[in-house]
Amino acid sequence: MQFQIIAKCPTTRARVSRMTLAHGTTMLPTFMPVATQAAIKGLTPQQMESLGVTLMLNNTYHLNLRPGLKVLNAAGGAHKFQGWKKNLLTDSGGFQLVSLSKFTTITEEGALFSSPFTGEPTMLTVMHISSPFAAQINDPFQPEESISIQHTIGADIIMQLDDVVSSLTTGPRVKEAMERSVRWLDRCIIEHENSGKKNEQNLFAIVQGGLDPALRDQCLDEMIARKDGVAGYAIGGLSGGEEKDVFWRVIKQCADRLPEERPRYSMGIGFAEDLLVCVALGVDMADCVFPTRTARFGVALTHDGPLNLKLSKHATELKPLDDSCPCPTCAGRTSRAMLHHIVTHETAAAHAITLHNIVFQARVMGEAREAIIGERFPDYLRNFFARYFRSSGYPEWCVNALRSVGVDITEDSDIPIIPGSGAKWEYAEK
Amino acid sequence: MTSLVAPTFTFTLSTRSNAARFGPRIGTISLKRPIPSSSSENDLQISTPSLITTTSRGVVPHLSRDHHSQTSAIKWVNVPFETFLEHNPPVPTLQPGNDPLHTFLGFGLGRHLVSMTARDPADGREMPPNGNKQISAMTLRGVRKLSPTEWRNYTQTCNPDIVFALSDTPFTDPPYSQKRLTKSIDRSASWLATMLAPSPRGTPNIILHMAGNTSIPARTAFSSSLLEPLFGPEAEAIAPFKTLDEGVTGYSFDLVPIRQGIDALERKNGIDAPVSIAPLFESSLNRLPTEKIRIVNSVQTPHEVLDLISTIGIDMFSAECAQNAANVGVAFDFAFPVRGGEVVGEKKQLGHNLYDTKYAFDFIPFADSFRGELPPDTNGVQQTVVDETLPVCPCMACSPFTPPSRLYHGVDTPDHSLAEEQFTHPDGSSLYQPPFTRAYLHHLLHTHEMSAHALLAMHNLEVFESFFKGIREVIAANEGREDGEKRWNVEVQRFKDTYDDNLRVVEEASVGWKEVDLARGKGRLAREKEEVVAE
Ligand SMILES: [Zn+2]
Ligand SMILES: [Zn+2]
Questions:
Q1: Which end of chain B is less congested by CB atoms within 10 angstroms, N or C?
Q2: Distance from A214 to chain B by nearest Cα, in Å?
Q3: Are residues A202 and A83 in the same domain?
Q4: Which residues, 6 or more positions from B361, have their beta carbon under 8 angstroms from its beta carbon?
Q5: ipTM score assigned to the predicted complex
């Protein structure tokens, strides 16, 4: 990996950088759309290329279940299997393993788990059955195995296996998970070093430590000490259940301390306000299923806030989602009325909104890069938040987070500040 | 409001094709758009026989707009309008501009001929009876009534290229009595007259459904009524036309109600007295001008297409069978004329049920009868020998190409990224990428990824269009030859000997579709919930 910072915001911690991997260059900060099962829902890789996406994510846990490693091996890796020529990132599989399996137990060896579908012991360790690395059916899912699987998948960026605990967990388990994640990182580094894949694939560490600043600091100390073995750092352990005001403080703490010369990746972040706060705090990459999932429920993301196209107020609205949007849906002048007519009835509606939402995310980040390089990032933040939250009010945590890096979005603004987690959009899924 | 004028629709049969009333024929549809849309790039031509792409709620199922414009087989698009009756007035009628239906639905003037029909010709569900002044149409919010006058207004406002006249086709309880069929042909003729009433906008290009269901006398009577010169107020009502037929651009046949009628008759009379389709079509067309375009909706197999071309001389066929196969996970794989020698052993299936586990490691393109522009790329792990003499399937699954341009969003152009970006070959031709494989589609189907159906829909439509292209070539090659008819029949027979006309793969795939559906959480919504947790 080549990682080069090309501009820094004079006010905030935001930066623009160029990350070159085996399948091309991705400009950071960037948002990574999630192709969980080796496909962005309803779209083709060529469409993703045309939207300007240069880095997307596959989920290791899912690909290991289907199509399985034998198929991926025969195909020559996930890039070729799905026809994607640009950069790819895989997670470790650990997160889904824990969240989808009822009977996971974590031991020092790794994670023991049963079938996510039935829970029956006969289906124990589905992951292993399809894995050439499993000696026995009751072997735990080990850090080495996660790395091996990710080597077979062949993504440009791979993640260490971490010991995942919910961000709402308290007590000694958090410390144990953090310390174990450090030890597992060592095992992942060794596995990766010995694999001969270091030139094509890049290992990222995942900083753990829950919501406890002291544990986070310890984890940062340990993981920064292992900098030579890792190409980048993710900030993990923030699952969305925590208070937003705690969330941003953890991000800030980590981003402040992580080495300048490594990309920083905030996992599972996708709301526009979260993305921009993270960028301002110094984060370079983020991923989330939110923009593509919400599209399937009929919600289009715009600079004026999300639009729920199921609502009858859009039934006769002949304008596109966003006049200034270059996505195929808006450039083709697809009206909100037409989308309203087909939304949730035709898959083509999901495709149209997915195309738009992916471009929306890319624009939010692209406009951020442009503003950072033009030394007007604070203005961009103020304008973006003013327009996005005009009708709903500023989330208080965003105001606090941005103040911490020297930007006051409430300046010259009469938009009210809303305490708590922020905007209550009319998402269709509720 | 400005008057919207319909484009000029011309259908020209090749000279030799025009000589016979029935039998294989080739022709050209040429559509010329009026001022102000007129410009050579907005005109379009379609060689016949060919296919009509069907739509659901105004969209080609599974295809985003960029995908349907990349699919060369999609030229004539038929839009059942009934779902738009959910809103009053129907929303497409609110669309400003000269080509409201094209604009509202995102079809290109120079690319797509768009026709508008009141009901979905594939929908055979039982319906409340039609009335003297209205049909019953189906919407998500229940049954809506639609009158001939409303239909005339909606079609005038939407300005499609072709309008299917409102037809009184009953969907109540077949077989229909002589009395009911008499009513049906009288109403259909009278509703056609409503469409033909003089208008400053001129007369639209009208396709007329051939009424009479399974009754030869009713069909003959309907055709005769079209040719009868009208007098007095009846003549004034459709001036300057002297007969109803003069105002008609072409004829259509909906197979769904005919099949229902035939099934009902056979149940009633016993299967010893089977009713075949060809004599019904002949009775409609026996006296009508031969040079007008003939359309059939809802053929089920390519075999049926060949029969209707051989016996009748049908020009356009709806592509539902191709699109339905894509819906359930079947990739079409057949070609006309059949290449190579005799078929030995079992007949081939018309496609592949890609749910079948035998495709899990099958790293080749969807069809054996076609290749992609590039061979599959599996890193040398799997060696596949590609027969270079195979025709290319131009679909975005078999012959995907690097998009000719991409979007930039800020500080990601090559001057920042320092990346060398290539979108086309130096000569401007497409930069093809390896085909999507059966193994990948198998995976997408088993994980319920919607991309599977987008790729299959594009592929099946292109394979179906290739089939029609082959038909046109064989007809053209045999025109004027003494043994032309014989040579055509030999090719048709070879096709029937090679391919099974049962739709076993489609049935099997439908089972696969349902099984994955169940395994992944009972129904679409439940499945969606599960994915939300899983992602
Ligand atoms: Zn858009
Ligand atoms: Zn194809």
A1: N
A2: 31
A3: yes
A4: A70, A71, A74, B439
A5: 0.95
Number of domains in chain A: 2
B140 Cβ under 8 Å from any chain A Cβ:
yes
State the pTM of this model: 0.95
Give yes or no: residues A278 and A341 share one domain: no
Name residues with Cβ closer than 5 Å to ligand 1, which is an ion: A 325, 327, 329-330, 356
Residue B209 sits in the same domain as residue B353: no
**Nearest residue in chain A measured CA to CA from B96:** A318
Tell me the chain A residues in contact with residue B381 when contact means C-beta distances shorter than 8 Å: 73-76
Binding residues of A for substrate: 91-95, 162, 208, 237
pLDDT in tens, A214-225: 999 999 999 999
Number of structural domains found in chain B: 2
User: Checking phi first, is residue A167 left (phi over 0); if not, alpha (psi -120 to 50) or beta?
Assistant: alpha
Residues A245 and A369 occupy one common structural domain? no
Which residues are CB-contacts of A365 (< 8 A; sequence separation ≥ 6)? A29, A30, A31, A275, A279, B409, B410
pLDDT digits (tens, 9 = 90+) for B189-206: 999 999 999 988 889 999
Residue A395 and residue A365 share a domain: yes
Looking at chain B, how many residues does it have? 535
Question: Active-site residues of A: which are they?
Answer: 91, 287
Looking at residue A285, its amino acid is M
Which of A247, A270, A287 is the last residue before a domain boundary? A287
Which residue segment(s) compose the domain that A253 sits in?
2-287
* pLDDT per position as a tens digit, B84-99: 999 999 999 999 999 9
Q: Which residues of A touch B382 (CB under 8 A)?
A: 74-76
Those residues with Cβ within 8 angstroms of residue A81's Cβ, 6 or more apart along the chain or in another chain: A38, A67, A71, A72, A75, B439, B440, B443
Distance CA(A120)–CA(A134), nearest Å, equals 19
Integer Cα distance of B391 and A177 in angstroms: 58
| B534 belongs to a structural domain | no
* Binding residue positions of A for Zn(2+): 325, 327, 330, 356
Contact A336, A369 (CB under 8 A): no
Residue B263 sits in the same domain as residue B363:
no
C-alpha atoms less than 13 angstroms from C-alpha of A44 in its C-beta half-sphere = 31
Residue B217 sits in a domain whose CATH number is 3.20.20.105
Say yes or no: B126 and B57 in one domain: yes
Residue A243, phi then psi, degrees to nearest 5: -60, 140
- Asked if the structure places residue B409 within a domain, the reply is no
Distance, CA of A87 to CA of A363 (rounded, Å): 19
Selected residues 180-219 of chain B with any CB under 8 Å from a CB in chain A: none
Domain co-membership, B510 together with B368: yes
Q: Domain for residue A156, yes or no? A: yes
Domain housing B151: 8-330
Contact call for B449 and A355, based on CB within 8 A: no
Q: Is A132 helix (H, G, I), strand (E, B) or coil?
A: coil
Interface contact flag, A83 B436, Cβ < 8 Å: yes
Rounded distance between C-alpha atoms, residue A145 and residue A188, angstroms: 9
- pLDDT of B533 > 50? The answer is no
Sign of torsion over alpha carbons A384, A386, A390, A392: positive
Residues B300 and B175 grouped into a single domain: yes
A275 and A332 belong to one structural domain: no
